[in-house]
Design goal:
Elements (H helix, E strand, L loop, with lengths): L4 E2 L2 E2 L2 E7 L2 E6 L5 E3 L4 E4 L17 H7 L20 H6 L17 E7 L2 E6 H7 L2 E5 L2 E7 L6 E5 L1 E2 L2 E2 L2 E3 L17 H8 L31 H4 L6 E3 L5 E2 L5 E3 L13 E4 H7 L4 E2 L3
Parallel strand pairs: 8-19
Antiparallel strand pairs: 1-2, 3-4, 4-5, 5-6, 7-8, 7-18, 9-10, 10-11, 12-13, 14-15, 15-16, 16-17
């Protein structure tokens, strides 16, 4: 998502065409052509200029609604409803790609989550990310935490530091994570002691009263016994290896010594491999 303003002047964009199966837009004020994926002007009076990136999420509606109670939803314009393509993504996925990169480890239409940090680009194959979340990684010296949310579809990436100290994370009740170097992360002795103490935040014996789930309970939930399958569902909670605090999918600590603190977010884009690779030729690929 990009700010539609440059040097204090608002720009109004419309669909101008498709370039390498990627949205191409043109502004009404100057007639400049802009590439969607990069936010850069590629032709016209403003060629070389770049729009400012606006932090955004790619979430399912259910996950977003659980987090934002008073948000607004962008609705189709009624008079143009017949012109919307109801099957755009599946139809486009069937088209042959116009560029490809034979010899790379991924297929052209493999879906990746890509990011650029301190001049270095990194691609996380979606299948690997969904299977191994949370993923602990490092890009250009910066520790990263890549997570897929409770719905198995939404994702976020954070700088994995707490008060300037590198930290690693794993899902509560899960084994310690395997890092990019295939070594198992070991919690600090203080974190291990706290996590094992019954009745304290981070306890594995008794749930913390301040722990919350990203998905709120239903309105008709009661204290009556629940089916075994429902009882087995646990809240989505991360534990860090530095302080043994509990963290939500929003990247904020909900209990423990770090309660109230939030991790810094890293912008990331879900894209086809051929498209991401085309605009990030020096990208590396995460390997488990």
């Amino acid at each position: 998502m990009w700010k539609r303003a440059l040097d204090g002047k608002a720009l109004h964009f419309y669909l101008a065409g498709i370039n390498n199966q990627n949205f191409l837009m043109r502004d009404k004020e100057t007639g400049t052509w802009w590439q969607q994926i990069t936010g850069k002007a590629i032709f016209g009076p403003m060629k070389g200029a770049a729009l400012e990136l606006v932090p955004s999420d790619e979430l399912t509606f259910g996950e977003w609604k659980a987090e934002v109670s008073n948000g607004k939803v962008l609705a189709p314009v009624g008079k143009f409803s017949k012109e919307y393509d109801p099957n755009w993504e599946p139809d486009v996925a069937k088209l042959p790609v116009v560029i490809s990169f034979p010899g790379t480890e991924l297929k052209s239409r493999d879906v990746v989550v890509g990011l650029t940090l301190n001049g270095a680009s990194r691609a996380y194959p979606w299948e690997a990310l969904a299977k191994h979340s949370p993923v602990v990684d490092q890009v250009n010296g910066t520790p990263l935490l890549a997570v897929v949310g409770p719905d198995g579809k939404s994702f976020r990436i954070f700088v994995s530091r707490i008060d300037g100290q590198d930290a690693e994370f794993f899902l509560k009740a899960d084994p310690a994570p395997v890092r990019a170097d295939n070594k198992v992360a070991s919690p600090s002795s203080a974190a291990t002691t706290q996590a094992a103490a019954p009745g304290q935040n981070g306890s594995t014996d008794k749930p913390s009263t301040t722990s919350t789930s990203a998905t709120p309970p239903s309105a008709d939930q009661s204290s009556t016994a629940q089916p075994a399958a429902a009882a087995a569902v646990k809240p989505w909670v991360l534990l860090d290896t530095a302080t043994a605090s509990e963290w939500s999918f929003q990247g904020c600590a909900i209990s423990g010594p770090s309660q109230g603190k939030c991790l810094d977010r890293v912008p990331a884009l879900k894209d086809y491999w051929f498209d991401w690779r085309n605009y990030h030729p020096d990208t590396s690929v995460y390997k488990r």
